[in-house]
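> run fold D-alanine--D-alanine ligase
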Amino acid sequence: MTLGKVGVLYGGRSAEREVSLMSGQAVYEALISEGVNAHLFDTGQHGLGELAAQQFDRVFVALHGRYGEDGTIQGALELLGIPYTGSGHLASAVAMDKIMTKRLWQQAGLPTPDYRVVFNEQDLLDLPQALSLPLILKAPNEGSTIGLCKVTASDQLSEAYRQVSPYDSVILAEKFITGRELTVAVLGKGLGAAALPIIEIIAPGGSYDYQSKYFSDETQYLCPASLPNALSDQISEIAVRAYRVLGCEGWARADVMLDADMRPWLLEMNTSPGMTGHSLVPMAAKAAGMSFGELCVKILSQARCKVLQPHLVSQAQE
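> ok
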């Protein structure tokens, strides 16, 4: 009850609306089971005026993709003065943009696959030599493997570009890393941020696509992943550093590839990870001894506005 009236923001207008509806429903039910005064609020059906009228004391952001994970709703919540879960508007926007994320990670000396930015079809010509084949074309501002194509031969580049380009004005071309697919959930803020147990994902046919992520019962998840302790610690440390470099807080999930030489490579950071029945953060939390309800309450309890209000600055100076 100390958390007050809580809104669970879900749905939205992105290509990941379907997943967000499932995440929001799951979070809502978990919070209700923990005695929280929670209410669902679909940002794809209701506007900011209606959100303000609800007079929520805090909100749990269970939105995925554009307008919900990219800093847009976070900025609006700052203006409305409503405390919210997860990263602030700047960290959310940067982490949503895979190109900007890779630039910051490279500058910080973190391992991430080599890449090129593709502005038009002419830029495709240099990719096989610059990155070698196979490679990946990605829409840099989408998630859940939406707007993503694997290219194994040069004559596939144009078709892959045509499939990906409707999602973004520029495309990320990334060196393909062959190996084991891992993911690392991180909770907390700053020096208090810590990794949950690492999960290894084994998808049917080796393709962890939209269907495999959210609907397939054939995808295998190993948690904790079978890794030497030293390597597990190294990967967890890299994930936490990647989280801090982007300025993330609350919770997020880093996707990592482990190559044949046992070298980890950061792919992306998800600042509003899925919370469905197939989702990975709840799985990692369970391995750490935390129920889904406890996880949701823990994340919710850290909700806050990230921009210090002027009247609070005056009070602090007094």
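The longest strand covers residues 179-189.
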